[in-house]
């Protein structure tokens, strides 16, 4: 089959083909670029394999481009890359790989195109387009990858057990591609993932996190999350989430499956926001439920304080998966606050309760509301509508109070420094007590949010603690 070369790629393909011809290196476009183009998905990475030196080819290509591109050489890997327009082009010599059992880093030697295709993870990722005079533009497809693209099938080119035990990261890649592309993993391939799931242990946490993030960034992350669960991989990479799986029943009363619920919440959220960290908050919002589950004879199943317990579990998960520290506080905050808005929709509530959540959530209040709206997973459309309307009303109320009181980025008017200076006392528990009492009085609406009233309140609270201003 001949690949339909697009106008925007014709020029660069020809430049590479000519440079390859001059050097006498048979050269091909391979991997993700070919797959994504055939699926009409956008692709910014162009991978070029040549039978010869990838570095030499990259240099020659760079010299024939106008304007000339700068080549970045990765000597250790024998690869070189250059940027051309919005394409990141990587050049590598065709290679043959052999693996040892304790590492996913293979021994590498040069090889033929077919050796290079053999080492690829899935048939749909092993397609190559020739850039050579003899068969320019033809697709080289030794494993029927085209057929699998058509059938939307993820299947390994060689025996799947070997593919996965050689490089267990491929198990996560299979699930990620299935989620991203809406493909099915071939049953034999999937069985091999189940069989080799324990091998995931040799993969670095950074790489695990990269694949998890890619799953979370798809339109329906639940697909990948369920495959992680079914394959048993979830227990190795996010055991806290795997622990939410299952339903228990007592006296005919069941609780919902909190893993399935979570996957729905993440999908709902994916419909509302592209933000990766808000999606992480959705993934972890109920993470405290396994530890807090109780049966109470009058109330039935309860998960008291699962929000606070969950909040405390987030740091360990972030540390393990090497997720960025600067997102940790944000995710923790949303997990910790996710139960609060619902309680504000249930009855007639005071302005002060609304003020308090505005203060506690600060600039993340909209994200918190988006998380809560996504947390509605009832199957009854009337209920869903009613709950969403309740949140809509709460949002309106928040807007009104925010307009009046500006609590989003509010700093209480009385600082610790001011307290220490006024009373000439060192940092101590009392300073905190006074500061908190003033802040609470404002949030409760007992005193206006103004400096003179706050200052007076500070004096009153201090007097109760037998602390008096220092006259200078
Ligand atoms: P994406 O860029 O969306 O992550 P991709 O398939 O292009 O998807 P890359 O990591 O860019 O993935 O790798 C490019 C190509 O290299 C793949 O299409 C595949 O042929 C090969 N490849 C990448 N990782 C592996 C792996 N772990 N095992 C075998 N082949 C791999
Ligand atoms: Mg790629």
Tags for this entry?
472 residues, alpha+beta, Beta Polymerase, domain 2, Hydrophobic Seed Protein, seven-stranded mixed sheet, two-stranded antiparallel sheet, binds adenosine-5'-triphosphate, binds magnesium ion
Protein described:
The protein has four domains: 7-149, Beta Polymerase, domain 2; 155-237, Hydrophobic Seed Protein; 249-255 and 274-405, no CATH class; 416-464, no CATH class. 54% of the residues lie in helices and 11% in strands. It contains 24 helices and 15 strands. The protein has helices spanning 7-23, 32-38, 54-64, 113-118, 145-151, 160-166, 169-181, 187-196, 205-216, 221-231, 234-237, 239-242, 258-272, 276-284, 289-292, 306-320, 325-337, 340-346, 351-361, 365-374, 381-405, 416-423, 429-443, 451-464; strands spanning 27-30, 45-50, 71-74, 79-84, 87-93, 95-98, 107-110, 128-130, 139-140, 153-154, 184-185, 249-250, 253-254, 294-296, 300-302. Helix 1 (7-23) crosses helix 3, helix 6 (160-166) crosses helix 8 and helix 10 (221-231) packs antiparallel against helix 13. It is elongated and about 90 Å long. The protein starts with 6 loop residues before the first helix and ends in an 8-residue tail after the last helix. The protein binds adenosine-5'-triphosphate and magnesium ion (MG).
Give the cofactors and ligands.
adenosine-5'-triphosphate, magnesium ion
Distance between the termini: 91 Å
* CATH superfamily heading of the largest domain: Beta Polymerase, domain 2
Tally of helical runs: 24
CATH topology of the largest domain: Beta Polymerase, domain 2
Oligomeric state of the chains in view:
single chain
